[in-house]
Automatic annotation (TrEMBL):
It comes from the Bacteria. GO terms for molecular function: tryptophan synthase activity. This is Tryptophan synthase beta chain. One of its GO terms (cellular component) is cytoplasm. Pathway: Amino-acid biosynthesis; L-tryptophan biosynthesis; L-tryptophan from chorismate: step 5/5.
Amino acid sequence: MQNKLKKKQNAGRFGEYGGQYIPETLMHEIEKLIKAYEHYKNDPVFKNELNDLLHKYANRPSLLYYAKRMTKDLGGAQIYFKREDLNHTGSHKINNVLGQILLAKKMNKTRVIAETGAGQHGVATATVAALMDMECEIFMGKIDTERQALNVYRMRLLGAKVHAVSTGTGTLKDAVNAAMQEWASRTEDTHYVIGSVMGPHPFPTMVRDFQACISAEMKEQIIKETGKLPDAVVACVGGGSNAIGAFYHFIGDENVRLIGCEAAGKGIDTTQHAATLECGTTGIFHGMKSVFLQNKDGQINEVYSISAGLDYPGIGPEHAELAATKRAEYVGITDDEAVAAFEYLAHEEGIIAAIESCHAVAYVKKLAPQMTKEQIIICNLSGRGDKDVAAIARYRGEKLYD
Ligand SMILES: *Cc1c(COP(=O)(O)O)cnc(C)c1O
């Protein structure tokens, strides 16, 4: 009995982080999900179906692109971009959503729910729900539904119902709470598609596995192109799913530096940022033990970033452990630096990348000149930036009709 309890408490741990901190009402469903995932992840039919969707629907493998002009301009390491921005729906999020909804189908679910902040994960979920003929309901903070009206309409167009959540601050963390509650009250036909490497076990592991195709492809592509491994892999970090996807197959390669870029917003010496690993402390929230931006009573802080996708007050538990063991490094990038990188990448390489991804690009701009011309950096471009163009114009004081 003691052993069984201990085993349960150790399920899905990354060092001291992770685990399952959930209401009793969800335990049974979470156990069914673990069982189903453990089965299907090794099932050749499931793997084939998922690979087929990734290839024919989502456009994988994504390209690895050598940024010749940027490399020359910065005068140091060779810079490569992993082009997740070219995936269907415009970011890495589709990788995870295809995996989870295919799994939900196998579990005979007919309905999916999801939380969303800026709407990117909501749109990806609504897209795949349409493709797979699933009922779909999206929980979004009320403030966010107003800020992201276009994405709300997009989700409706795709057949989803969008709930505006007005509890708390009416933002992402409240949308997660609402989705979790909805799931606890209706598990028979419903799967909760969590959008990043967070929440109770098995989500941080399962979502990481679905995103790990990024580093599996990167490794094959860079070896084919250059004959060696990269010296550094750089990615932006919100909850941490594109970063862990980009890091995963390099974790065992000790000479590859893994660098996560958090949103330092208006500066980590202000209260307006989302730099969790630089400024946060260990706590329990949203079903997991991890690092959070919180006050000393465990009250979760309001966070801020110009990029809505990095605007989360916590981080996935595997990143908390990679930071604690110093296997990965985490740095803060301010709004100003990210916006400058957004413009720089557009000019220099003709790529308009998501403002989230531009946090990683901004760090590459600092890092490359400190490295030699023989060294290689791969930067994960997690998404495309069409959605950000109007906001960047506003940031620069230009008036646009959008
Ligand atoms: C959602 C999003 C992110 C942040 O989420 P992670 O789980 O940290 O990857 C980053 N980039 C883009 C383009 C996104 O849409």
